[in-house]
Write a sequence for this structure.
């Protein structure tokens, strides 16, 4: 089969496929009626007939065979309809995304062509008289990224196309006289997958990729997932299978085996998530047995050390959105085991076994710390992570687990999991098999950030295109407790978790604005609409923003989130003034003053970090904003951490108001990067106040001026509001630190 090209994906007419799906849908309905009639009518009459002799021995079985064949025809038609529908949805999604990217590139003048071996070439054609002009680094990066994104989309379409063609052939079974020869397709595909899995490490790379593909396209199918995992044998056999495949791939000096098992790992987890979901009939209630095995040593042939069950399960859990009834108790048990023996519970390899890893997709062949793994699992499982981080013994008792994972009524848990994992005393394990000398591989803290994003935003952390749900009191309360935890342990927000803290800041800008407006004569708390009544404390929030603002990625997320929210809220005030108390002009100036207050905290934090770390850090801050800003504008349907959805802008998320301000913020940081030199690098950090003025004025221009104001005069007033708010933010930040120091010395 010829490989698809970007042109074929762009141009293909999916209309005939959609029409075929509709025809098969009609056929499914007709065959369903026919099958019902065959069994309840023809076969029922045949069974009641008082036949003797040849009629009894031949006719009755013949009638039953005919009725069964009609039922099989219905089964095959239903399977064909399902597979064609899934293929259409997948291909249409890819085509839409590819067409959007290609059309946007063409509007910018980019030419796209085919290279060798499926490579996609992107270039800006030289303008007349500029043929020898060197392409800028920025444009080279843009073209390279575009080519890679298009190639990835084509690969996705090609994979789906090949898979569907193969499955359709198997549904037919190559026998025109025997419908559904292979049985229901879901169970047949599971049997195919099991045939490969049963080979274990004897399976070829090609077979492992076939298995991964079967899991990929059927991971959400309960019948497939139940059949597959039951066929593996049970929880222990599942862990042993995963362990053998991981060790086999990470110990292989080549890349082909590793790449194949990486795909297997990525799709094995989501399949297990479906199999263990109580919402599905016949789900596998494997949670208690996984907990029993979690603290047990598991013998794996070919491996000198014995990993514990949770170390193996963790590699599977890193992928998939798990039900909270399954995952939350596992996460609780793992953290309790770590708490009880913080430095010596989990086994790690030595000697020749150092080459092996339990997380094929991890860096440096890591995967020995199950705390890291379950936190990553929580990052993909919003309901489970919310339940996990909401548990606090000061509110209600928290279940204690014995070593076998059973609830122990006599075990007293006197800490919340949030306080445990954000404590100064928490021991983060070095989750790497063979780190470079002096290097600390602490993936756990990054995974904790992912889990907190999931718990507070309500979506898997790595699905930025998924709109965030409304803020609930439970999620908002987790944010409140995060700010207070950081208030107690300011150094907790290190670089590896700052991006997640920045995303949470961006998402909760309404609540943060409310906290900053508390007690202010210049801004009205009621302007910042929220759906709950959980307040953030001003002082703790200021110190939290300071901690986030000291790191490039966190600062970028929080700054763009704050400015995007400010722009959208202004737009809402102008276009829907009846939703707010007071005059529109005063409300906009109140929003601007509050925006300046937040930027005063973030900008001061950035300035302090640059003063400590030097000019190179200034460039990192600017580049982080540029990178995040460009991504934000491409994320149609999701505004800057979804913050703009926190007030009602019906049918719109990222709008012109947001995009214009994003451009303004990004351009100012680009300018700073280009202009800075050894003499001016430190001085650039002081420009934030002036930049904030421009961002505020830009937001008003994009949102629209309130009626009855002189535009020039109002714009100058906005600049003053930002400056005064900025100074107020610096003062709030300074007071927060002074008060903290005073309390610490008492």
């Amino acid at each position: 089969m010829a490989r698809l090209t970007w042109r074929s994906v762009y141009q293909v007419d999916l209309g005939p496929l959609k029409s075929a799906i509709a025809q098969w849908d009609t056929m499914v309905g007709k065959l369903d009626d026919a099958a019902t009639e065959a069994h309840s009518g023809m076969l029922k009459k045949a069974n009641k007939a008082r036949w003797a002799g040849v009629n009894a021995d031949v006719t009755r079985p013949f009638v039953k065979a005919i009725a069964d064949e009609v039922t099989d025809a219905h089964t095959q038609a239903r399977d064909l309809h399902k597979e064609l529908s899934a293929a259409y949805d997948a291909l249409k999604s890819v085509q839409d995304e590819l067409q959007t990217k290609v059309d946007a590139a063409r509007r910018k003048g980019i030419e796209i062509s085919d290279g060798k071996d499926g490579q996609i070439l992107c270039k800006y054609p030289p303008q007349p008289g500029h043929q020898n002009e060197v392409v800028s680094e920025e444009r080279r990066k843009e073209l390279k990224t575009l080519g890679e994104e298009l190639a990835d989309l084509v690969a996705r379409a090609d994979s789906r196309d090949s898979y569907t063609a193969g499955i359709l052939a198997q549904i037919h079974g190559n026998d025109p006289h025997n419908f559904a020869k292979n049985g229901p397709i879901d169970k047949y595909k599971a049997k195919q997958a099991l045939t490969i899995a049963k080979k274990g490490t004897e399976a070829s790379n090609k077979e492992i990729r076939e298995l991964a593909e079967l899991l990929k396209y059927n991971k959400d199918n309960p019948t497939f997932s139940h059949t597959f995992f039951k066929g593996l044998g049970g929880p222990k056999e599942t862990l042993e299978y995963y362990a053998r495949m991981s060790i086999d791939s990470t110990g292989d000096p080549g890349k082909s085996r590793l790449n194949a098992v990486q795909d297997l790992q990525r799709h094995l987890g989501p399949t297990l998530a479906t199999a263990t979901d109580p919402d599905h009939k016949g789900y596998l209630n494997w949670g208690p047995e996984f907990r029993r095995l979690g603290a047990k040593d598991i013998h794996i042939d070919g491996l000198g050390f014995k990993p514990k069950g949770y170390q193996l399960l963790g590699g599977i859990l890193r992928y998939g959105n798990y039900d909270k009834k399954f995952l939350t108790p596992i996460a609780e048990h793992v953290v309790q085991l770590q708490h009880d023996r913080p430095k010596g519970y989990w086994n790690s390899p030595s000697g020749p076994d150092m080459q092996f890893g339990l997380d094929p997709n991890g860096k440096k062949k890591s995967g020995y710390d199950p705390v890291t793994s379950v936190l990553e699992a929580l990052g993909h499982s919003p309901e489970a992570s919310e339940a996990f981080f909401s548990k606090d013994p000061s509110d209600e008792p928290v279940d204690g687990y014995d070593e076998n994972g059973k609830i122990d009524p006599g075990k007293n848990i006197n800490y919340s999991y949030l306080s445990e994992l954000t404590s100064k005393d928490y021991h983060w394990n070095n989750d790497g098999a063979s780190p470079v000398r002096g290097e600390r591989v602490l993936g756990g803290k990054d995974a904790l950030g992912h889990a907190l994003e999931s718990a507070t935003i309500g979506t898997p952390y790595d699905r930025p295109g998924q709109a965030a749900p409304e803020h609930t009191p439970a999620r908002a309360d987790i944010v409140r407790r995060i700010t207070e935890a950081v208030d107690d342990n300011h150094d907790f927000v290190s670089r590896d978790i700052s991006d997640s803290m920045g995303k949470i800041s961006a998402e909760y800008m309404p609540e943060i604005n409310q906290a900053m407006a508390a007690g202010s004569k210049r801004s009205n708390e009621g302007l910042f609409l929220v759906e709950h009544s959980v307040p953030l404390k001003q002082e703790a929030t200021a110190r939290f923003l300071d901690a986030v603002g000291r790191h490039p990625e966190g600062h970028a997320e929080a700054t763009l989130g704050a400015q995007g929210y400010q722009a959208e809220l202004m737009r809402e005030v102008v276009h829907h003034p009846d939703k707010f108390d007071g005059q529109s002009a005063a409300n906009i100036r109140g929003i601007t003053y509050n925006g300046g207050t937040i930027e005063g905290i973030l900008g001061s934090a950035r300035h302090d970090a640059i003063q400590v770390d030097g000019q190179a850090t200034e460039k990192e801050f600017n580049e982080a904003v540029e990178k995040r800003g460009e991504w934000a504008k491409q994320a149609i349907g999701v505004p800057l951490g979804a913050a703009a959805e926190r007030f009602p802008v019906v049918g719109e998320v990222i709008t012109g108001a947001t995009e214009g301000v994003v451009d303004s913020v990004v351009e100012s940081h680009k300018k700073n990067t280009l202009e800075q030199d050894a003499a001016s690098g430190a001085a650039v950090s002081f420009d934030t106040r002036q930049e904030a003025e421009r961002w505020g004025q830009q937001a008003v221009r994009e949102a629209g001026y309130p009626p009855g104001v002189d535009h020039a005069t109002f714009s100058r007033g906005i600049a003053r509001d930002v400056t005064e708010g900025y100074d107020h933010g610096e003062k709030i930040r300074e007071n927060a630190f002074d008060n903290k120091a005073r309390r610490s010395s008492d």
